[in-house]
Amino acid sequence: MDKIRIVGGRPLNGVIPVSGAKNAALPLMIASLLTPETLTLHNLPRLADVSLLVRILGNHGVDYMINGKKPGQTVTSGQTVRLSAEHIVDTFAPYELVAKMRASFWVLAPLLARMGHAKVSLPGGCAIGTRPVDLLLMAMEKLGAQISIEAGYVIAKAPDGLRGGHINFDKVTVGGTHMALMAASLALGHTLIENAAREPEIVDLADCLVKMGARIHGAGTSRIEIEGVAGLKGAEHHVMPDRIETGTYAMAVAMTGGDILLEGARPELLQSALDVLTQVGAHISTTNEGIRVSRNGAGLQAVDVETAPFPGFPTDLQAQFMALMTRAKGSSRITETIFENRFMHVQELARLGAKIRLDGDTAIVDGVDDLQGAPVMATDLRASVSLVIAALAAKGETTVNRVYHLDRGFEHLEAKLSACGADVTRLAQAG
Ligand code: EPZ
Fold first, then answer.
1. Which of 208, 238, 268 marks a domain boundary?
2. What is the four-CA torsion angle of 201, 205, 208, 212, rounded to 10 degrees?
3. pLDDT tens-digit profile of 47-65?
4. pLDDT confidence of 404, banded at 50, 70, 90?
5. Which of the listed residues 58, 250, 313, 319 has the most CB atoms within 10 Å of its CB?
6. Considering only CA atoms, which residue is closest to atom 4 of ligand 1?
7. Does the global pTM surpass 0.90?
């Protein structure tokens, strides 16, 4: 398994191109199952999760064509993928594939809506909490599906097709809203989704579905209405920029000092995090090309943060923010409200010299003057990158093990950081 070696202490200066968003790309790719025509997605990031989903979709009968680099494009330019689900050959999604990535469970919705049945393994994914699927299944039931769970598999049936219904989520769920949007687009009649997730990735999926012929109103608000249509057609769509990648590099430069242009980033996708970074002491401005983040000289101020569904502070930036707070002046309280077990980075940050105490769903971070490099290992994607941020500012050398977590969600991480002056090297290891 590869490792990443980081020698800390260098500021970041230069340009980091922001990739297409993983968490938009995945549901968009899954939406290809809804139509027999071709869905063309541009700006798709080169990530392990994207490659895995291509394999999963292939099992269902989706043909795909991935374009290579065009002349003039850099290695960080997004790729174009054409997905054609002309014939769905199988509505079964096996444990071996679904257990590796939770989002692949969402194939249940388009398979059920288009074919009237699906058998999908209960999901796996990052070890950040129990992550049940009750709300996802409730949404399908409200659209008329019969659901049973047998031997670790969800069996969903709608022999006469789905029909519109009233879905009221008692907790905001991104995956539940994605599934409800996809299924309701092909259900007979009108669907109302209340307490829908308002994340920008929901809007990106809805925009693409509308291009495919779906009739959706209110995406981006907590009340979405859908008028089902008999069939969807092919479309062409650009994946939105990755707001979590943007926030991650913004925190990295706040940590190391320096001046970075996050090319292609859109501030409205992560305003709450940018506001927090401003309070911390970073200087943030918006340009025609993206977001510019700098910190020169001034120390980091401790700021308290509580994660919340969009437009609140994203749980997917909590670990990175904690890394930043390890070197702030004073004490910061970081409360995680979305996932009950998303503090696995705490003990690894401690290896680098961080002082963090846990009190239920809150981490209290007492800033220290210096971190010290050490070997570390992370258990999930965002936790891994929080260790990278800490390592960039630590004295001496850090090796981050289990880099496959990073490869799931950060495209060309070491190339992007090295180009801005960081000392980051991937150490390839056999086996
Ligand atoms: C999406 O996961 C993201 N994944 C996650 O990003 C992100 O952390 C999360 O939304 C919250 O923003 C993708 O988009 C691929 P949820 P999702 O359903 O949809 C509970 C990353 O690092 N819940 O919004 O799976 C659940 O346990 C990943 O890129 C139920 O109780 O999250 C959690 O507490 C990690 N029952 C809360 O809702 C259900 O049936 C929100 O989860 C479903 C969810």
1. 238
2. 180
3. 999 999 999 999 999 999 9
4. confident
5. 319
6. 23
7. yes
